[in-house]
Amino acid sequence: MTTTARTRPAPVAEQLPAHPAIKIGGLRKSFDGRLVLDNVDLEVPAGKIISIIGQSGGGKTTLMRCVNLLERPDQGTIMIGEETIFSSGEITCRSLAKLRQRVGMVFQRFNLFPHLTAVENVVLAQMHAAAIDEKEAVERAVNLLTRVGLAKRAMAYPEQMSGGEQQRVAIARALALDPTVLLFDEPTSALDPESTGEVLRVMRELATDGMTMILVTHELPFAKEVSDWVVFIDGGRIIEQGIPGDVLDHPKEARTAAYVARYASPG
Length: 267
Fold this sequence. Notes:
By secondary structure, this protein is an alpha/beta fold. Helices cover 35% and strands 24% of the residues.
C-alpha cells in the first residue's frame, strides 16, 4: 500500500472518553438459525473513525445495522453516548426516529427518491424526520450540497447524476439531521474510480472535522489513511483490531493476513 496513515499520539484504546460515542457488548444476531454476529464487543470513541473490514457475509453490515436498530439483535447491549438503546433482548431507546437522527447511515445504493431533485431529497429528510420548517430546510440543504461539492447540481434529479454525485447527496441528506455518528456501509463499492475519489474526498473532510464514523469498506488504503482504529471481522467475530498500521501492515492473525493480502494485491 502507498497511502500513509494519519499520525496519532496513541492507540484509540488508550484515549477512550468517559462515555464512548458507541459501546457494544456481547452482541449476537442470527438469521434463520445461522449465527451472523457472535458475542461482538466494540467501543467507538467520540470523534474517531473506525473502519470495519472483512469478507462479504462476515457480519460487517449486520453489525452496522444493529447499531441504529435497523436490525434487532438477539442478545447483548448497545449504548449510544450515555443512553442504552438495546439490552436483554429489548429495544430500550425512547424513540427510534430520534435514534436514527443521532446515528445517520449512508447506504451502498444511495436510496434517493428518484422523483425529487438533489435539494428536495435533502429538504425532505429534515422536514419529515426533524420537523424543520421548509425555509430553514432549504437553506441548510443548499449549504450542505455546497459542502459536498454539488452546489451546481442542486436541481438535478438522481437519474441525471453520476453515482458519486448521488452518494454525495446521500451524505448531505444524512448530515442535514445533525447526527453525532455517521455509519457508512461500503459507500464506494458501486462506484467507478473517479466517483469513488469524489466520495472519499468528502469523507476525508468529515474526518478532519471530527465526525464520529463507522465505515464498512474494502478500500484498504483509504481505511489506513483516515481510520483511528481498524476492526477485522470474520465469521461473525472480531478476529483482530488495532491501529491501522498494525492491522493492515503487520497483522497478527492468519485470517487477517490472508484478507489483507488478497485486497492489497488483487488478481
